[in-house]
Amino acid sequence: MKEFTIILYAGGNNRLTTDLSLPKSLLPIGNRPLIWYTLQVIQSHSSLASSPLIILTSGQYRQALDDYLSTLNITYEIVIHRQHHDSTSGGEDQQQTSDELGTLDVLRLCYSRIRTESICLLTCDLFGKVNLTPLINMFRVRDASLCMLLLKTTTTSSTTGKDSLVQPGQKAKFTAEPEYYTIDQSSNTITSIRLKADLDEYLPLRQNILAKYPRTLIRTDLVDGHLYLIKKSCLDVANRSTYSSFRKEFLPKMIRQIAIDKPLEDLIFPANNRKPMMRQKTMDLDDHGDLSRILEQYDCDDNQIRGGCYYFIDDTPLFRVKHVLSYLEANRQASSLISSYTNEDITFKDRLEQIQISSDCVIGDGHDIGKKTTIKRTIIGKNCRIEDKCKIINCVLLDNIHVKEGVTLQNSILCSRSTIGSKCEIQNSIVCSNQQVETNKKLNCETVSAISNESTGYMIYDDEQ
């Protein structure tokens, strides 16, 4: 019997380009779509590589996603979901975002397909190489209700060792809302997750939790990696609840209930009308015959309280591709990451006459590059035409782009089927799909799109669970 069922959320809207036929999961990074990197994380651990894989996406992306996944040597099932609830009010002024399906709403659509006692939930935007063995072993050894992956907050300068990069596109005031993680370092227990918006002036700490976990810390330098190992008995409660979002609504309440030793069923049923929650015994450990040795590794013994919520912090350069700057950074790291997974060198090796292309560039098939052109630290997609005397540095060009003579591009993103007129100077900007920039145009920190007020949508796109 399989230990895990993997639920992969791949239905996030693509807000980087205006090509609605391309979901976020298929955004190209290097010469691979974003979902490829998440699939490598799954395939890197034998317990997950052999597990049933259910991919959740919306109907408009089904065909494009299926066309790509069918080229891979994996077994999967795609479950289609709506993007919005059925309208009940019919009011014309109803906000679109107010009736969008949450991640728990989507999960309920495939819940009957889950046949295992443990579930791995994750999104398709995790980029980097992560060793899941400590997380999975902790989940088994502790017989945990939940184990979640936390990442240390990093900037692109700390990831690359270079100066901070300027985020392309129109300037927008956006500050990531800090999260407060209350954790116990001695046992790797997480006892609460709080958003700043949910707090008043102080962060309350319960006395009974401090007594139980005397080495409690509150950390704000962590971010959720959106990778969870969770018992199906816990998701049974979420499935029967009225919550819409797993990450923002159910997860914080679940962690709090378990930390204060209250039944999860209290979230949906009164205490006097509750059915007991059955727990499954832990599965056998991979490559570890001596259970006591593993228990020592996690500073616990066989009599320690089980069924709690635990965290694992990964120290490798791992991040989620959820905004423009992280998308640029992922493209810069793509060649080395692909090489670590496949031993394939995707960097451009051809030598072209009177053309300077640095060794860290990736250039797709069907390219046409003119003479006296310089390209450095840049990713170029398929069927792109770049005319003579162009200078392109720190950029991402998607497929079917035409850059005319004498253009200078720096730290910018050109989306599919865009055209840049001759002698343009573009830096720190985004040109959306199917757009044309006129000759001799100078752009700095701008977004060129079909709708002028659309630009702020490209600054941050996040599908919080």
TrEMBL record:
SUPFAM superfamilies associated with the record: Nucleotide-diphospho-sugar transferases
Gene Ontology cellular component annotations, sorted alphabetically: cytosol; eukaryotic translation initiation factor 2B complex
Alphabetic keyword roster: Cytoplasm, Initiation factor, Protein biosynthesis
Principal localisation: cytoplasm
GO molecular function: guanyl-nucleotide exchange factor activity; translation initiation factor activity
Location in the cell: Cytoplasm, Cytosol
Record-annotated EIF2B subunit epsilon/gamma LbH domain positions: 353-439
GO biological process: cytoplasmic translational initiation
Domain of life: Eukaryota
Coiled coil: none
Gene3D superfamilies: Hexapeptide repeat proteins, Spore Coat Polysaccharide Biosynthesis Protein SpsA, Chain A
PANTHER family in UniProt: TRANSLATION INITIATION FACTOR EIF-2B SUBUNIT GAMMA (PTHR45989)
Entry similarity comment: Belongs to the eIF-2B gamma/epsilon subunits family.
Record's subunit section: Component of the translation initiation factor 2B (eIF2B) complex which is a heterodecamer of two sets of five different subunits: alpha, beta, gamma, delta and epsilon. Subunits alpha, beta and delta comprise a regulatory subcomplex and subunits epsilon and gamma comprise a catalytic subcomplex. Within the complex, the hexameric regulatory complex resides at the center, with the two heterodimeric catalytic subcomplexes bound on opposite sides.
UniProt protein name: Translation initiation factor eIF2B subunit gamma
Organism: Adineta steineri
